[in-house]
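# step 3/5: fold
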Amino acid sequence: MSYLRRASPLHAARAGVGAAYCAAIVLAALVIGNPLLLGVLALAVLAAGAGAGAGARVARSLCLSAPMALLIVIVNGLVSREGLTVIARLGDGGPFGQIDITLEALAYGAKEALVLVVIIGACALASAAVDPDELLRSLRRVSLRSALTATIATRMVPLLALDARRIGDAQRCRPDPAGRLAVMRAITANALDRSLDIAATLEVRGYGCARRPARAYRAWSRHDLAFSVCAVAIAVTALTLPAPFSFYPSIHGSFGASTWISAAVLAVAVLAPFAQRRGVAR
């Protein structure tokens, strides 16, 4: 996952606002218990990725989360002992006791799987559309050293991964290639050498005695306001939904008009900021 520079409303908004917008989607996924609303939220996140020019990235993340989502459904169906509607009796499971798969356990597992899908999609959207350098710059006045450490770490991870691939390729080209342990030892030694070089460079350049920078004022744009308002709308809608959805001991919830209205409000709140395309080019 890496930042993709695109001409989109989410890229045009400041990094803090974009991160808050994605965090509001994650909050909604954690709070909402209705599977219909979670499904609508997952589709809205996919559409938001397309609006941000990162549709392929978000879709790929959703595809990668599918096996984990399926595993959650299977494990919850096998482990959960709650629910009244038994759809399969697998007999004695030894130390696990009688294994009965209930409809309620599978439905609850499917709901938790949807939560995982939405969270992964929102994180993929944030990694593709929120500039990490700008986000860390906004934290300089809070803690300069922490922001500097996070910035170096985010920059070093892909570099160390590239070093690992190069060392692995070089080992495979040898007549008698070394084992995995030798490759890991070389990668670890290289990472430690790089860390010492970076520490010495930062000390020479005076980062050890750096002070908190002055506040830099930046006027809010239409995209900042739009995503801020929609982030608040997403959080408020998720926290003030009508009657909750319950799975145990039996499935009980609403799929009536109020649920569909809430789903529409969520979808509009997620997608509305992308309707404004003016001023997206940088």
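# step 4/5: annotate
DSSP finds ten helices and two strands in the chain.
# step 5/5: archive (pending)
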